[in-house]
Amino acid sequence: MFFSIIIPVFNRPDEIRELLSSISNQDFLDFEVIVVEDGSPVDSEEICRDFESSFSLCYIFQENSGQGFARNHGMTKAQGEFFIILDSDVVLPSDYLGKVYRAIQTRKLDAFGGPDAADSDFSALQKAMDFAMTSFWTTGGIRGKLKNPSKYQARGFNMGVARRVFEQIGGFVDPNQGEDVEWSIRIKKAGFKLELVEEAFVYHKRKNTLTSFAKQAFSFGRNRVNVSRFHPEAIQLVHWLPTVFLLFLISIPFFFLMFDPIAKLELMVLGFWSMAVLISSGNRFGSLLVTILSWTASIIQLVSYGAGLLVEKIKKSIVG
User: Fold this and answer.
1) In terms of residue numbers, what domain contains 84?
2) How many domains are contained in the chain?
3) Does the predicted TM-score (pTM) go above 0.90?
């Protein structure tokens, strides 16, 4: 068996049904699926049983310990040569496994990370959040559109490692605080080849509201600081750009009161960025509603991530 697909799930029975359905439609058939129920009060066991006749599926229930440790549990039970890690809120194109397999073989990869995208049937808000998470004008350039694929840090919604990687360096060291980024850095430090496979995308069907999206982005900023506990080099200049954007927005009303010409210049810069976001989203989705929501989600994503990074960095410097 080549692939073992590891899926942690917590109170998401409807999501897991849609993901498993997409897995049953894969062109590449040499795989098993391991669903690790992480102490969910609303479990997915009955739904998993519906797919047992479609492919090899193992359902495991454990006490709640966090998605990172749930993935570790799944990998200890896996039989495949290569482990694929997915979040329960993604859907796979039918050629996903085939694309991953070809990339592994032709590029001699020990590990990989793939990007996410929005399917045509997603809601306007889901498309807007996808834009905010993947656009060049936010943090998308470091999430899944790198010129050098070897610089990519894989994310837990769509990543994979060879069995030998897990056996040599172990799995996730944190339940849910940037554990995927930490693992990516550790994999590379151990000398394994991890790269972005841009064509192996998943449809990321986020269930967020704008409020929960802001909270999630804030936690992503905090998580980057948490990763720096293990790898001090994890925070680079590019990761501070959302914080710079946040401080830039805060400074606009201040300069209107203190020095009007600078405020006007800042508004011009903000206008240029806003126009770039609107044009980019409009070209991608062709919807006025999605375009407006994309601008809103982009503001929220940058401000929230920047605030999370700044707050956690200050907290770390105080606590030590």
Assistant:
1) 3-114+152-207
2) 2
3) yes
